[in-house]
Every structure is written in structure tokens, then in C-alpha cells.
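Morning. Coffee machine broken again, so started the prediction first thing and wrote up yesterday's gels while waiting. Chain of 581 residues, entered below exactly as on the submission form.
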Amino acid sequence: MACASSCRPLFLSSPFPSSSSPSSCSLTTPFLFCLSPINPSSKPIITTLTANSGSFPVLSVGGGCDGGNNNDDGPFGSDSWRWNDDSSSSSSHSYPFLLFLSSLLACSSHSQLSSALARTNGETEEDDVVWEVRGSKWTKLIPDFSDDAFVVSNGISNLTKLLSLSTLWGQCRDLVMRLLLPEGFPDSVTSDYLDYSLWRGVQGVASQVSGVLATQALLYAVGLGKGAIPTAAAINWVLKDGIGYLSKIMLSKYGRHFDVNPKGWRLFADLLENAAFGLEILTPSFPHLFVLIGAIAGAGRSAATLIQAATRSCFYAGFAAQRNFAEVIAKGEAQGMISKSIGIGLGIALANCIGSSTSFALASFGVVTWIHMYCNLKSYQSIQLRTLNPYRASLVFSEYLLSGQAPSIKEVNAEEPLFPAIPFLNLLSANRERSVVLSSEAKQAASEIELRLQLGSKLSDIVSNKEDVLALFNLYKDEGYILTEQEGKFCVVLKESCSPQDMLKSLFQLNYLYWLERNAGIESRGASNDCRQGGRLQISLEYVQREFNHVKIDSESVGWVTDGLIARPLPNRIRPVYATV
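Came back before lunch.
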């Protein structure tokens, strides 16, 4: 080559360790910097040389070899620098400058060299690819030859790409997901979490709009803008809230009810909250009843707040598919803050348009309340509870007895009424799609068992003679409960050692009793007769002891939590004492 005598290659070792595998040969080949005299019109170029079957980039600074045109005059005159083997004093002073410039070129062009090497070698081979996984998001990482590290393969390389619309949208989307959704979404939560969150976001906006309208009405009622004394207004406000707080204290003792039927109680809390807002909007029309109306509304809002907080825990516990309970709660609060912020802004704008007109405020409140309640209803219908309360357990067990298979979580939750004890209120959700998988017999059985079940009955109310007591004690001596039928009621007497698992087992036996009654025609003949060999209690208990573990395993295989029954039994317990012979 013509340039071989005029330029000496300077080799810099690659930052990556060498490998003997052929696939990594191109990654470990040293970089070659070829320094040659610089011409004023020349520009740095990158070429590729091949050595030992491995390609590596060459940075040639200056005009380089121009076909034998060996011009000794560089850009700085006749003393232009070059690398040669003569150690003359005239060129020794340029060595430090040459080394400094070489280092500067190496530092400033390392990213270009990495890019050139990537282009030369083509796509990174699969052995050198690392995937970073965050939930369902997979990010491809490739080696960075300059920093001895892995970088995102489609990372931002220049300001134009940084400011591109698609990149900004992607960054904003990732930021929103990090702030509002649990890490690892959607794999870290259950499938119903997103629907619930979206509907809750809309209802949160509507709730805040109603709150702003109600607050404005309260301020007008206490005389704001009419020369009212601030101290009197403050006293009235404190009395209103203070009386309202008592409802929260009184309602706390019903906490177990919220666990059994959280969807219905949560919808009731929303109705209560909207009723409280409506009363507050009416206060300007009755300013002399401000404290009374405000106290009633405050009591309703306090009760609604308590129920909402209690039931929220049930929902979030079901969403935490990876035991990330705290994170699901934190993200839910963040979503709520965004909804509230938007709602407050819209409420303020609407309140400015309405002014002090009570009629316009009530009309606007009616529209917002409809949106609020509809979104609440849709959000609760999207929730798929995995725990077993009496209704869901009866539906699962009845379907298992009829078909031999445990029904899915989605089918059972779609069929469960929001208010099992108040049938006419269930018309709110009558237009939703009904399940076609669950049999009508199982649905009817679950509804009837829910009404006939009496969990925690008194023993003295279901037996009238010693023979019945001894027969029941002897049959259920190894169980944590006693089950019998009395006046059409399925009465479950709980022993002192009874656990939620025992209550779930009693409900399975109860479903089998119902099946014997409906399909086999075996009626009750009294407690003592039913406990004998061949009696309905003896037959059902024997079946339960044999099949209960099987139905638990089948139910768990489709996602049900079978560690116990979520119920609110009566506080009655017994402690049987068996005489030792």
C-alpha cells in the first residue's frame, strides 16, 4: 500500500475481554487508529480493514494516502507533525502534542467507533443480547463497547430523536405507568384491576364536582357574601362536622358485614354520599336549619367514608396477584388524587357558572350524580372477588355437585347480586349479561341456601330432647360444627374451636343436604333419625368427609381462595364435653 511507509497504526485494546469463540471475534478485535499527515481540505473518515478474518474500524485522520501524493507540508507549515522512526530533535517536541491529540480523538469519537463497529458487524448476535423484563414489558439491551456496559438497543442517540413526538409520548406513558400502576403491570395484578381503576377514576371526578357544588352551597348557607360574622360561621361548621363524626364511631361495629358483601356495601356508601351532597346543596334554601341539615349530611358522609375505606381493602387484597398489597394501595391513592384534582377543577368551573342559584345547582348535581353512580356500578361489576362468602361458596358447591367441576371466578362474580338480602335492589344490575355457563339449578340453590342459612345458631333452639343432643354430639364429635335442619332453616351450631375452614366445610355439607332434599327426595325425620346409619345427616357428612378435599383442590385450580368462609356468624358457641369410658 502507498500509505504503509508514511503512517504507523496505533492500536488501542478493546475494553471487552477476548473470547475464543468465533462469534465474538469481531467484538474483541482491537481498534486501529491510523494517523497520517493532515491536509487542510481533508476530513476524518472511517474505513474498514480486515485482519485475521475479523473486521475492525480504522480512523484515518487527514487526507491520508492520496495515491502517492506525499506532501510534506501540513496545515502548520513545513514542520507539520507525523509519526516516524527518526528521533530527531526537530520532531521530538511534537510527540506530546501528538499524544494529546490522539487521546482527544479517541475520547470524542468513541461513540462513533462503537456505531461503526455495530454497522460493520451487523446486528448483535443473540448470545450478546440481554432482555430486561418489567411485567409484560421486554426491553432489549446490547453491549456498549465504549463503556463496557449494556444499553437499550433503541436508545436515544441525538437531540432530534429525543424531541420526536413518538419518543416523548413513550416517555410520558412510561412515567404515568410508573406513577399510577403497580410495578410489573399487568402481571403483578389480576385481570379485573384495570377495568375497576378506569371506572373509579371517572367516578372520582364526578364525586369531586358534587363536593365542590355542595361546599359552595354550604358557604352561601352560613351567610358568606352577606356580611355574616366569621366566628359564627366557624362555630356552625364545627358543630356540623362534630355531630357527623359520631356516625363513623357507631358504624364501626358492623365491620364484619363489609367483608361478606363488600360490593353491595360500597354501592350503598356511594348512595349515602350522594344523598349527603344533595342535602348540603339544599342548605341555602333553609339557612335556619343549617346545623341540622349539615349534621345529617355530615353523618352520612362520615358513614360513607368509613364503608369506603373498609371495603377498599377487600378489593385491593384481591388485586394483589403477587402479594404486592401495599403497592396496589399506593397506586390506587395516586389514581384517586388525579381524579380528585380533575374533579375539583371541573367543579370550580361549574360552580362559577351556577353561582348562588339552588335550582341550577340541583340540576347539575342530578346529572353528575347519575354519572357517579353509573361508574360506581360498572366498577363494582368488574371486580372478581376470589374469597368465598355464603352465596359464592353455595354457587361453587352447587355447580360442583351438579357438573363435577368448580365454576370460574368470573362466572360466579357475574352472577352474584349486589344486595343478596334485598332482592328488589338487585334490579339495578338486572340488565347486565347473565351467565350461560352456570346452571339455573345451581343459581336457584345458591339463592335459596343464602336465605335459609343460619350460621351460629343456639343449640337450645334446635333440639328439644336428650336423644337428639346425644345423636348430634356423637355424629359431629370430630367436626368443629353441628349441622341440622329446623323449621326449614339450615342451622349450623358452631363449637368453640370452630375455624373459618370448618364453616366452609359445613356449607359444603349443607349444599349436599339441599341436593338430597331436591333431587333424591330425602326429607328430614328428626335429628336423632337423621343421625342414624342411612339418615340424611349421616349420609351427607360421610360424603363431605370423602369429597371436601377434592372440591377444595378443584376450586383452587381455577383461582378460588379456599382457606375459609367469609361470613358473619352469630356469636353463639358451644363447648361439648365427652365422657371418657
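Residues 1-93, 107-127, 155-159 have pLDDT under 50 and may be disordered. Going to sketch it on the whiteboard this afternoon.
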